[in-house]
């Protein structure tokens, strides 16, 4: 670098009337670079322009006659990569445009503008920035390096890294010609990496995309999944599309450890998802009926390119405990319990009701982990839901059905028994009285039918008496 400055200093000293300025320009590899060269107007006739790169000869030149020439190394597939727009010449702007910049284009350039009476020279240092990744398709767990290389490297420059527009802090060795990020490949490193180089008031940047292959869902280890007792839950284990892991398996870890030898027992209703309903890279599992003891850490794994990829997740189980305080047996207390409530920031309770069409509606929200419900009120019994929230929103919910009659105990139960006996006895008495009244009514109706024709009854009676008298007389004779 000192030699290059010495050469240009010598050229400047030998050129009578020449003015020399040094400009720093940063450009990302593959982009377009613009090397500035502006002069104050000093003559009406067209000047001669010469662009050269130190140690590599002529880049582009234009004679006063208007003829143009290009360096032989600046043609790519028959297309010139450099140009100097004539539309800017009237403004004394002779800037050089370089398309599809490469690392080899980095270096020191000279713009010499020759008028009839004097010459003006501008010196431009083009620094090309390129970000590269050690592996085109890294797998989770691989050694990963992301390199930011600047050609030529500016001694004393400040380097900053960003991942998805957020600062990524590393220790940078400023004595080398590049900045390197060394990490173990994980999903959190996927995204757009940007290297920002600051030097002498100028700033340049370059970017590269990184996609770490492996397990995409869950996105990170120790992801928490919430499920209610008795419900079904899916344990996700989805690899990147196109990957077909070998020897995939599920394990349950004992509490407080991630050791492979400290394994627990999978739930009784644990099963792998149906092969017909998932892609080869989907190794998810399902627990059909979650029990409170099914909580804990689970781990899925698979082998890709001889590299074992794993992901752990934590199943948090929720249940509702009910209790009846001794002093108020007509009330029930409901408590929302979670096996791990460390991420829970808020609880709320709502009463759920349904109309004749099955449409669901919820009542007023009540805050708190515990709620007390009166069983004597028809407005309180039924289905209650406990919702629990974290910093990013709702985590899950669980419902509980409070029956109207099930909790009536003690004096309330005795009172109910006495009332039932009294009602039964009164009912029997009413039935007996009703039967008596029916029989009396039947007898009355029969008498009424007989006495409707009294004269006929007298005639019948007289005839009967006469027949009896004749029969007696015959017997005497």
UniProtKB/TrEMBL annotation:
Pfam families assigned to the protein according to its UniProt record, in alphabetical order: ig (PF00047), V-set (PF07686)
Keyword set includes Protease: no
Database matches in Gene3D superfamilies: Immunoglobulins
Name of the protein in its database record: Lymphocyte activation gene 3 protein-like
Signal peptide stretch: 1-20
Matching PANTHER family: MICROFIBRIL-ASSOCIATED GLYCOPROTEIN 3, T-CELL SURFACE GLYCOPROTEIN CD4
UniProt organism field: Scomber scombrus (Atlantic mackerel)
Spans through the membrane: 422-441
Domain of life: Eukaryota
InterPro entries: Ig-like_dom (IPR007110), Ig-like_dom_sf (IPR036179), Ig-like_fold (IPR013783), Ig/MHC_CS (IPR003006), Ig_sub (IPR003599), Ig_sub2 (IPR003598), Ig_V-set (IPR013106), Immunoglobulin_dom (IPR013151)
GO molecular function: MHC class II protein binding; protein tyrosine kinase binding
The keyword Membrane appears for this protein: yes
Domain Ig-like: 30-119, 121-211, 219-310
Entry's Gene Ontology BP terms: interleukin-15-mediated signaling pathway; positive regulation of ERK1 and ERK2 cascade; T cell activation
Keywords annotated in UniProt: Immunoglobulin domain, Membrane, Signal, Transmembrane, Transmembrane helix
GO cellular component: external side of plasma membrane; membrane raft
């Amino acid at each position: 670098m000192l030699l290059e400055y010495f050469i240009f200093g010598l050229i400047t000293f030998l050129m009578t009337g020449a003015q020399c300025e040094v400009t720093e320009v940063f450009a990302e590899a593959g982009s377009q670079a613009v090397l500035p060269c502006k002069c104050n107007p000093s003559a009406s006739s067209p000047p001669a322009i010469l662009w050269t790169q130190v140690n590599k000869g002529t880049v582009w030149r234009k004679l006063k006659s208007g003829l143009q020439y290009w360096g032989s190394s600046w043609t790519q597939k028959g297309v010139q990569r450099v140009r100097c727009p004539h539309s800017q010449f009237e403004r004394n702007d002779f800037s050089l445009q370089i398309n599809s910049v490469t690392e080899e284009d980095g270096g020191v350039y000279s713009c010499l503008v020759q008028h009839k009476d004097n010459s003006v020279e501008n010196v431009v240092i083009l620094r090309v920035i390129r970000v590269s990744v050690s592996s085109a398709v890294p797998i989770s767990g691989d050694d990963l390096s992301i390199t930011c290389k600047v050609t030529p490297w500016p001694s004393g420059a400040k380097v900053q890294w960003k991942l998805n527009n957020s600062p990524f802090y590393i220790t940078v060795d400023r004595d080398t010609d590049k900045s390197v990020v060394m990490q173990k490949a994980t999903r959190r490193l996927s995204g757009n990496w940007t290297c920002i180089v600051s030097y002498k008031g100028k700033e340049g940047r370059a970017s590269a995309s990184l996609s770490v292959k492996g397990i995409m869902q869950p996105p990170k280890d120790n992801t928490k999944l919430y499920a209610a007792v008795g419900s079904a839950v899916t344990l996700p284990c989805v690899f990147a599309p196109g990957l077909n892991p070998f020897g995939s398996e599920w394990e349950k870890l004992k509490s407080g450890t991630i050791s492979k030898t400290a394994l627990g027992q999978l739930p009784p209703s644990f099963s792998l998802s149906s092969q017909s309903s998932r892609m080869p890279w989907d190794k998810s599992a399902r627990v059909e009926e979650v029990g409170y003891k099914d909580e804990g850490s689970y781990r899925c794994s698979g082998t890709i390119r001889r590299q074992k990829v794993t992901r752990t997740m934590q199943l948090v189980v929720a249940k509702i405990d009910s209790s009846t305080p001794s002093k108020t047996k007509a009330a029930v207390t409901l408590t929302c319990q979670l096996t791990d409530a460390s991420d829970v920031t808020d609880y709320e309770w709502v009463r759920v009701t349904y109309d004749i069409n099955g449409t669901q509606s919820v009542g007023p929200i009540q805050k708190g982990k515990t709620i007390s419900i009166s069983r004597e009120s028809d407005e309180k019994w039924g289905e209650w839901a406990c919702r629990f929230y974290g910093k990013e929103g709702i985590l899950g919910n669980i419902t509980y059905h409070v029956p109207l009659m099930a909790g009536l105990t003690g004096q309330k139960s005795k009172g109910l028994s006495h009332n039932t006996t009294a009602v039964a006895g009164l009912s029997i008495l009413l039935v007996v009285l009703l039967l008596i009244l029916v029989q009396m009514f039947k007898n009355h109706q029969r008498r009424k039918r007989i006495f409707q024709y009294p004269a006929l009854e007298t005639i019948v009676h007289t005839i009967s008496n006469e027949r009896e008298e004749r029969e007696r007389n015959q017997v005497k004779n």
